[in-house]
Amino acid sequence: MSHYTADHQAFAPTGNPISRFFSAIGNALVSMSTSNARVRQVEALQRLSDEELKERNLKRSDIVRHVFQDAFWT
C-alpha cells in the first residue's frame, strides 16, 4: 500500500470552533497548492512531443500516473 506524504504539515485543529474553521481553510489552501503544482507538471509533460516523452521513458497515456505515483496506490 502506498501512502501520500508531503513536505508541509497540516494545521491541527483545537477544540475552539474558530481555530477549527481557520485550520480547515489552511488545510484546503495547502491541498489546493499541492494539487495545482501537479496539474502544472501534467500540463508541461502533455506539451512535450512523443519523442521527448520517449527520452524520459514515458508514454502519453502514463503521464498522470507518473505525476501522481506517490499520491495514489495503483
Summarize it:
This is DUF1127 domain-containing protein. By secondary structure, the protein is an all-alpha fold. Helices cover 55% and strands 0% of the residues.
Query: How many strands, what sense, and barrel or not for the largest sheet?
Result: none
| Percent of sequence in beta strands | under 5%
Could you report the average pLDDT, rounded to the nearest whole number?
A: 79
How much helicity do the residues have? 55-70%
Over all CA atoms, what is the radius of gyration? Answer: 17 Å
Low-confidence stretches: 1-8
Strand-pairing-aware structural class? mainly alpha
H/E element sequence? HHH
Q: How many extended strands?
A: 0
User: What global shape is seen?
Assistant: elongated
Q: How many H/I helical runs?
A: 3
Question: CA-to-CA gap between the ends?
Answer: 9 Å
Protein name: DUF1127 domain-containing protein
Organism: Sedimentitalea todarodis
Write structural notes for this entry.
The structure is a single chain. With 74 residues, the protein is mainly alpha-helical. The chain is 55% helix and 0% strand. The longest helix has 30 residues.
Features:
about 0% strand, disordered N terminus, single chain, about 70 residues, elongated, DUF1127 domain-containing protein, 3 helices, mainly alpha, about 55% helix
List the helices and strands and how they pair.
Elements: H1 17-46, H2 50-55, H3 63-67
